[in-house]
Every structure is written in C-alpha cells, then in structure tokens.
Automatic annotation (TrEMBL):
Cited SUPFAM superfamilies: alpha/beta-Hydrolases
Domain of life: Eukaryota
GO MF annotation, one: catalytic activity
Stated name of the protein: AB hydrolase-1 domain-containing protein
Protein source organism: Acer yangbiense
Domain AB hydrolase-1: 82-317
C-alpha cells in the first residue's frame, strides 16, 4: 500500500544537514564523461551512479540505440508507473532531487533521456527530429514500461509529453506538465540557419558563461558555487562527441510545435508552475489550463522555471496527491460487470476485439474466475457480435442472459458458451 507522504531530506538548496542520499564514493557507469567526478552535489552523484543503457530498436536505424534511463528499484502494479522526461538539451539528472522523493513512496519511477540529449550512445548518429524522438520513446515504453503511465514533462519536455500523449494515447494514463514550454512554434528561424551558423550557435549553447546566465534566469537566489555545480551537472551530456550533431539535427528539423495538439489531449492533466518563472510566463500556464480539456493547475510561490529542481518537495507532494485523487476516482468508477469461469481463449477473444482494451476493461483472476472490471462510464455505443462457439447451456449455468462488455466505446455481446458460468456478483460495488 502506498504512503503518500514525503519524508526525504530536502536538497542542498534548503539544507545540507543529514542528507539521506549522500554517498562518499559512487561507482559511475563507464560510459559517462569523466567530468562526472567533478560534480559535488550528492543527489546528482547518486542519480548519475544509477544511469544505465538499455537497447531500443527503432525503424530509422539499422542498429539498436543504447538508451540511457534510470530504472525503478521496484516494479509494482498497484499504480501506473511514473515516467519523468526532461527539458530542452538536458538529461535525467534534472530529477536529482525529486526522483528519490517519488521513489521513497513506493511509486514505480522511471527517468528517461529524450533521444538526442542525455547519455544515450549516439556514436552512429540517428535522426533526432520530433518523429524520431517520438518513435524512440514509444519503442522504449513498449519494450520496458509496458503499461499506461503518468508522464511528467517539464519545460520543453511538456511539449514532448503532449505530442506523445496525442499520438500514443494508449501509453499515457495522465499527464503532469511543469512550467510547460508549449506555445513556441518549434525552433522558428533557427531552422533556416546555414548549417555552419547552427553549429556556432550550438557550440555557444554548451559554454559555461551561457549556462550560468540561464541558471540565474531559471532559479531564485542560488549561490554562485551552487550555480557552478548545477552548470556542471546540466552540461555533462554536452561533452559527448555526438552532442553537437544531434542538437543541430533537431534545430534544423523545426523542433516541437504542439499548439494545435493541446485541445486533443484526452488525459487528465496536472499543471505545475513556478510563480516567479522568468523564462515562461505563468500567464501561459493559465492559458494552458483553459485550453486543455481536463486539467487542474497549481502554482508554487517563490519558485522559478524548474520547480522540480528548486522546490522538489512541493512538486513531489503535488504529483502524489494527483495520483491519489485519480486512484480514488478510478476506484469509484470501477465496477464488476460479470465473472466468467472460463479458460484463456475467451479472454483472448475479448482482447482481440478491443482497440484500446487496457484503458476500458481490466480482467483479473479471482478465486479461479475471471473478473471483468469496467474502467470507464458507458457512452452511446454500437453492438458487434463476438464469434464464439455456441452450444446448449450447461446445467450449472447461472444467468443465461448473454453478458455485455463496454470495450473502447463498443459493446461486445458474448453469447452463452459451453462450460461458461456467468454470475453477476457486484455492480458498482453493490453485492447482488
């Protein structure tokens, strides 16, 4: 059972005393740039030590891409997995403070590097445009995460999350968007730059002075020493030899333009915004709240553009409360439609006749029976027959009326089958 409380020690921005995650000497993965040893932040060092590469097969590359992630220490199925993206030209180390807070609660938490950034192996450089980033993430989800997820996207990662949720709604249960950069029209005029000019701009992008200036804009009142250390964390992935090529490829491809996709988002969404964001105005957060079909918004006072770095406890608490409320709503919405005492063949028939099976119906085995749970309220539906072998009802059949199931907006009528015991036990939690 999940305990929705945050108990981890605050990051160095608030306090350095008694840091629970402090490690004197980490063993870093050999593929990380050697400059990782210069990072002082114990939270960043701890998370860096957990980064690993996993193979992801994509259609646009002959070779699998060894992709960098932080995998959860525990895989559990009580709630949807939480998957953390990062912002523009960043990495999973953005989550150095919030990741351990979420994991402490027992949530299955992933931190994933977006293709072209982070610490994936791109020596054989693939395409790094929007379509490639989307396919790469989808194949990673399909191969490893495998269940509808709570997808968290900060800054430009919010645009990545919206684009992914609209194109692959079956993979996303809910969205969390943090100081979302979703109203810019891609990379704009940068896409028209001559390639040599693009490389000059990208070279400046990884410079320490520019990164320090960005930190001043992004965060409220951090010390110079902290800003320097965070700069070292933020530009660590830029030290790979393929980083410039990957970033230029993204830049000239046009980047993310998701304005037209916002009202297509079907998932319930939590919007988090730092009230003092000097990079993306919180007025745009209010606009986003109005344009998303199903969203709630929370603003964090005395906080800049990256609340998950600056106010990790507040962000973790908001995410956990959002998950808890959705779990309550899901429990209230879920009702047992019928119980089928059958083999796996009928279950396969139900699955095969569903376009979005897992989001609407869940079948669990309880006391040697298959219990069919309905996840969503019924809507105006059409009827389709399911071709099952029909025979005389067995003597012990209870309730010979053909059962009906709502699967992704389609009512599937299951005729009586030899050996099937239909026994409606609960409807909306009421014992019959």
């Amino acid at each position: 059972m999940l305990a929705f409380t945050v108990t981890a020690t605050s990051p160095p921005l608030v306090s350095t005393g008694g840091a629970r995650f402090k490690v004197l000497a980490e063993m870093f993965p050999s593929f990380l740039p050697k400059q990782v040893e210069n990072i002082r932040d114990p939270f960043a060092r701890k998370l860096a030590s957990r980064i690993e590469r996993i193979p992801v097969h994509v259609s646009f590359s002959e070779n699998c891409i060894m992709s960098s992630v932080v995998k959860p220490s525990i895989i559990q199925s009580q709630t949807s997995p939480v998957v953390l993206l990062h912002g523009f030209d960043s990495s999973c180390l953005e989550w150095k403070y919030t990741y351990p807070l979420l994991e402490e609660t027992g949530l299955e938490t992933w931190a994933v590097d977006i293709l072209g950034w982070g610490f994936s192996d791109l020596e054989r450089l693939p395409l790094c445009n929007v379509a490639s980033k989307r396919e790469h993430f989808y194949q990673l989800w399909k191969s490893y995460i495998k269940r509808p997820m709570i997808l968290v996207g900060p800054s430009l990662g919010a645009a990545v999350a919206i684009d992914f949720a609209v194109n692959h709604p079956e993979a996303v249960e809910n969205l969390v968007l943090i100081d979302a950069c979703v109203y810019r029209e891609g990379t704009g005029n940068l896409a028209k730059l001559p390639r040599i000019a693009a490389y000059i701009g990208v070279y400046l992008l990884k410079s320490i002075p520019l990164r320090l200036c960005v930190n001043i804009l992004a965060f409220n009142g951090i010390t110079l020493s902290t800003s320097i250390d965070w700069t070292n964390v933020g530009r660590l992935h830029c030290l790979f030899p393929w980083w410039e090529d990957a970033t230029v490829d993204f830049m000239i491809s046009g980047g993310y333009n998701v304005c037209a996709q916002i009202d297509q988002v079907k998932q319930k969404t939590l919007i988090i915004w730092g009230e003092d964001d000097q990079i993306v105005s919180n007025n745009l957060g209010v606009r986003l709240h109005c344009e998303l079909p199903d969203a709630i918004i929370h603003q964090i006072p005395d906080c800049g553009h990256l609340p998950h770095v600056e106010r990790p406890s507040s962000v973790a608490k908001l995410i956990l409360e959002f998950i808890r409320e959705n779990c309550k709503a899901e429990a209230q919405n879920m009702s047992v439609i019928w119980i089928l005492e059958v083999g796996m063949d009928l279950l396969k028939v139900l699955v095969n006749h569903s376009r979005d099976y897992s989001r609407h119906v869940e079948i669990k085995k309880v006391k040697n029976k298959l219990v069919v749970f309905k996840r969503r309220p019924s809507q105006p539906l059409s009827l389709i027959p399911v071709p099952l072998p029909v025979g005389p009802s067995p003597p012990n059949t209870v309730g010979v009326v053909p059962p009906v199931v709502d699967v992704d907006g389609v009512v599937v009528v299951v005729p009586p089958v030899v050996g099937v015991v239909v026994d409606v036990l609960l409807v909306d939690g009421v014992v019959l």
